[in-house]
Every structure is written in structure tokens, then in C-alpha cells.
Amino acid sequence: MTFTLTSLNTPFGLAMFATREHVGGTWAVLLDEQNPYAALYAAKAQGVTRVIEAVSVQPCDRLLEPGDLLIPSDLVDLTHGRRSTFFTNRGYGFIGQAPVWCPQTRQALITAAQAITPRTFVRGTLAVGEVDTQIEDARTWNAHALAVTSAPAAFLAKELELCYAVIAIVGGAASERGNAVIAKLMQHLPDERTCACGSTMQPARERGLISDDWRTWIGD
Ligand SMILES: [Zn+2]
Q1: The domain containing residue 135 runs over which residues?
Q2: Separation of 49 CA from ligand 1 center, angstroms?
């Protein structure tokens, strides 16, 4: 695989991730990303348009086994104390969160995952909490798996008009199966971005609230 390791200093700290060129634009792979602010800022600065995060999860659903893959259809944010926007103290309006994941990137992940293992689940809610969030708490929200990353990344990515989708891997994201899906993904990413992710800020743009330079969009 020809991934390029990118390391970049940002106003939010150092970011490190792998990128790969594709006719449809550069994509980046994050792994249990603890600092989505730096990672997504750096991805945007590198000209990335699609971001995939491999996320380690604990199962909430008793049917899920170690190594199983979940491409979640929904997200429950049980985090607390995390800054969930780049646009603090800016009045750009509300960005809709449905669908929460880029549908086009998610579909490519599903196809790639299904080619790797039949133990791929494509309907399910991912809960994202803190390290002390209990499985029982996630279950009360009807979550199927519990992670500690991908929120607020899913919201932040929208603010920077990036496609973002996750593959949740029961037991651990740094796994052979996870790597195999990422390797396979290249064949399944569409050449053209037909999702709406690239124009989430269009209403603010049309109202003259933001300039063409996305760096100036970010709040204090
Ligand atoms: Zn998209």
C-alpha cells in the first residue's frame, strides 16, 4: 500500500495520520484519534477531502464478537467536556447532523468490509463516551458498541466540509482485519464526490458570513 505518513503542526497541536491519493481526491485514515481538532485541521490543510477513522469498540450487543466489524448507521454522543465545534463564538448557524456519517464514504466502507468478512454489521448505533463510560450506560441508549473516539470528530468534519465515516472494530482498531478493509477501500471509493459533505457551509457562504479561506472560519 502506498500511504503517506503526514505529520503537521496545527493550532490544536501535532497531527499524524496516513493519507493516500485517489482520483476522487486525497483521503486520510485516522486510528482511534484522540485529537480530532488537530487531525481534521491538518487533513483539511493537506487538501484531504475524505476521512476514515478506524475505531476500537467494546460490544454492547451480545451478538458482537472480537474482530467483528461495525459500520454504524447512527451515533450517540455520551462524551462530556469536549469542545464539539471549531466555531466557538461564531454565529454561522446550525449544521444538520443527519446523516451523521458521509453516506458515500460509509457505503464504500461497507462494500470493502463485506469483501473481507461476513462478520460485518451495517446497522447499529455507535455510542461514544469517556474512558469511564459504562457499557450499561450505552445500552440504555440502544447502542450496539461503545467507543471513546469519533465524537466530536463527526461534527468537526462537517464544519470543514470533509467526508467522514468510521469503521468500528470490536476489540481493537489496530488489527489485521481493520488494515485489510482500509487496503480494500481504495477500490470502492467513488471517483466523484456526490454527497453533500463538500457544501455543508454553503448557507453561511451565501450569507457572506465566511470567506473562502477556511482557516478564518475557526473561532477562539
Ligand atoms: Zn461525503
Answers
A1: 10-87+96-217
A2: 8
Task: Please state whether beta strands 13-20 and 69-70 pair in parallel, antiparallel, or not at all (unpaired).
Answer: unpaired
Report the half-sphere exposure of 18 (CA within 13 A, side-chain side): 14
Question: In angstroms, what is the span from residue 162 Cα to ligand 1's centroid?
Answer: 7
CATH (domain of 182): 3.40.50.1580
Instruction: Determine the distance separating the centroid of ligand 1 and the alpha carbon of 99, expressed in angstroms.
Output: 10
Q: In this structure, is residue 27 part of a structural domain?
A: yes
Residue 1 included in any domain: no
User: How many independent structural domains does the chain possess?
Assistant: 1
* Closest alpha carbon to 76 in 57, 104, 103: 57
**pLDDT by 10s per residue, the chain, length 220:** 589 999 999 999 999 999 999 988 899 999 999 999 999 999 999 999 999 999 999 999 999 999 999 999 999 999 999 999 999 888 888 788 889 999 999 999 999 999 999 999 999 999 999 999 999 999 999 999 999 999 999 999 999 999 999 999 999 999 999 999 999 998 999 999 999 999 999 999 999 999 999 999 998 7
Strand 69-70, strand 120-121: pairing: parallel
Residue 142 within a domain: yes
Ligand 1 geometric centre to CA of 194 (Å) = 7
- Tell how far the Cα of 200 is from the centroid of ligand 1, in angstroms: 10
**Gap from CA of 166 to ligand 1 centroid (Å):** 12
